[in-house]
Amino acid sequence: MMEIMEGSHAVAEAVKRCRPEVVSAYPITPQTHIVERLAEFVADGEMESDYLTVDSEFSALSACVGASAAGSRVYSSTSSQGLILMAEVCFNASGMRLPIVMSIANRALGAPLSIWNDQQDSIAMRDSGWFQLYAEDVQELVDYHFLSYRVAEDHNILLPGFVCFDGFILSHTYEPVDIPDQETVDAYLPVFDPYQKLDANDPISMGMYATPDYYMEFRYELDRAMERAAGAIEDAGRAFGEHFGREYGSLVEAYRMDDADTALVAMGSICGTVKDAVDEMRDAGRKVGLLKLRSFRPFPQAEVARALDGVAAVAVLDKNISPGMAMKGAVGLEVRDALWKTGIDVYSYVIGLGGRDVRKKDIAAVADLAESGRGDMFYGLREELI
Amino acid sequence: MVDKSLELFDCGHRACGGCGPALAARLILKGAGADSIVVASTGCMEVFSTPYPETAWKVPWIHSLFENASAVASGIEASLKRQGRTEKVLCICGDGATFDIGMLCISGAFERGHDITYICYDNEAYMNTGVQRSGATPYDASTTTSPAGKESFGNKRPKKDMPQILAAHGAPYVATASVAYPNDLMQKVERAVETPGPCYLQIHAPCSTGWGFEGGKTMEIGKLAIQTGLWVNFEMVDGEIAKAKKVVRKPVDEYLMAQKRFRHLFKPARNEEEIAKIQAIADTNAEKYGIDIELKK
Questions:
Q1: Mean of the per-residue pLDDT values for chain B?
Q2: N or C: which end of chain B has fewer CB atoms below 10 A?
Q3: Do A65 and B72 touch (CB under 8 A)?
Q4: Is there a single domain that holds both residue A228 and residue A332?
Q5: Residue ending a domain, choose from A194, A228, A244
Q6: B98: distance to nearest CA of chain A, Å?
Q7: Is A200 close to B39, i.e. CB distance below 8 A?
Q8: At B114, which CATH number?
Q9: How far is CA A44 from CA A17, A113, A215, in A?
Q10: Which chain A residues touch B40 with a CB distance below 8 Å?
Q11: Which range of residues forms the domain containing residue A163?
């Protein structure tokens, strides 16, 4: 049933239907409405979870590690500084192959302090061994939670995952959204079946140390699992269509890409604006399209190469900055790598950092820049401040 | 009742000869029993007991990071509760992981009141990384980051009072023990795991390598710490000191002279002033915990 709901509350509704046994979280703007609503569900007996109000994000994810290792489905959510404080635990959780799912309300990193949106936080965790999905709207945001648990807990995958969504832009926006009923979710997402767990009846040691004779193979297996995750996300996305009527069978979504000469590539809520901008440019006779990335990790390299085959120029909208890297944006670099040796020009545009608004005319201006061969730059700077 | 025949910490691990912490692990598990889950911090014990693919632990064991054992234990306890399981959850962590880097997580776990037993094996420095000082290092001990030198007598600060800090969190049971008194240690572990709520146990675990004594003298050194009043075995119930081991105290010299970490207090010349300060620490302990046995005249 379609309802008008705030993004964060929709996430809480989705999480409730995923039936995590343990929720462990620490408040940070703009994630707070999720964890507040979950606390209300627990307080009202609508959700049978142990809810740990911990001392920090670091402890929040550490408690998830423990609960997951003990055999429970677990949930957490954070943003920005909180995610970076969790960084050490993130690498650890994936190394132990614990299928934790966490919602990331994307927010800029200080200094200077900013509570507003960009995607620096999750992109900085690129190599932490978590899969990363990016939602365009509240519906995708809700759906990716069911999908993520299904992928994470697959015994052939066993990876933790982020469901990333733009802070405020999605977390605090009311949109029409279909919140599936519990029975449909239960049919799609089976009861958690841990691959292994801490159990006095069958003792195992987890998180041992590895000498140089053993360490590399663990990282190799982690990378292989991430490679397999691409197919698992597609499979789970197709099955999603069968259960819920909305399909996510590909890690990318092409919008008006047929015959496009110029392609815009983006992740997250900005894709909605880009679609409107593309429509306007198409109306003006320009052959422009959008390639939306649903997944940054695993990076859908083959799909990107296929989707962009034949275009003349690619403009990647990067809501992040890798200071000192010539291309500047981390997503741009991956797209350029996907198109290596094709001769297609790929440019990165660092845009919308720290909540700076990105309008349709900005998207059109970026397309102009790409077509004129100018890129790998910040877009939208206030020149008078520099 | 403690089953002393229970061996849940296996032989064949990589600890140094005479390792106090290895003995502590073995005794802790005798006290806790087989229905236990152990959470470890990064440190000596983790490294010497679990070189993949071998493990010395016959109970479920998990190591995540250096500083988060109590938070991991919180999650395990919450999970067990949801599943209706009854295993006891124990953290076994070094003093660096406890007194310093893990403080935030420990404080959070105790404030939340999880039913866990946090055990610090206290060898009074960062031994795994090469004997650097921690908040548990005693006054004047020479370590690699608090070396005695021309302008230094070693570690400049007294040991942090962790038992008091955790008692102040409302922990129902806080106790200290020593590997040199195994029965007492095992009984305290048993009491801690059977007491609902977060309990804290701090175990004096002499480190022959870090402190500088022959591996065969671990028990002797442990006993001397108690006999001089530089370590007190006590129990606190609901924040009040309930019991402390009484002794006929020896001068601190006997304990200090037996270890290289205090050698600079005696060579090239006896440092009366510093030794007097350490004696004063023992005297304060004796008064605070009431450990002196009055000898009949």
A1: 97
A2: C
A3: yes
A4: no
A5: A244
A6: 15
A7: no
A8: 3.40.50.970
A9: 15, 36, 46
A10: 207
A11: 2-244
